[in-house]
Specification:
By secondary structure, the protein is of the alpha+beta class. The protein is built from three helices and six strands.
Length: 106
């Protein structure tokens, strides 16, 4: 298994995808790592992925609200937890958005 997956994306810029994210996607393709990487890469490169603003009440509780970002891919209902680094973003976690409400930026 690759130690890191580095890709360039249109909206997030250069990213490194964690093994946790690969493991998340491998659940949807019978554990096949190559398919999981391809699935994650396709979603992260989709220009429809958008950054979610952290609600002000949550940001107030964080020591530094700029150390964590959330990115949403609506078509796949996937939310990514991302940590900005100096020259790239670390895509640390992926989860399905099945929490009972619909994201809407309108």
């Amino acid at each position: 298994m690759q130690s890191s997956i580095d890709i360039d994306t249109p909206n997030l810029g250069p990213v490194t995808v964690s093994q946790h994210v690969v493991k998340h996607f491998s659940r949807f393709c019978d554990g096949h790592t190559d398919e999981a990487i391809a699935m994650a890469t396709e979603i992260l490169k989709d220009p429809k992925i958008e950054r979610l603003e952290v609600p002000a009440t949550v940001a107030e509780m964080m020591a530094d609200p700029n150390v964590l970002e959330f990115w949403l891919h609506k078509d796949s209902s996937t939310v990514f937890m991302v940590k900005p680094k100096e020259k790239f973003r670390l895509v640390e976690m992926a989860m399905k958005q099945s929490i009972g409400f619909k994201f809407d930026n309108a």
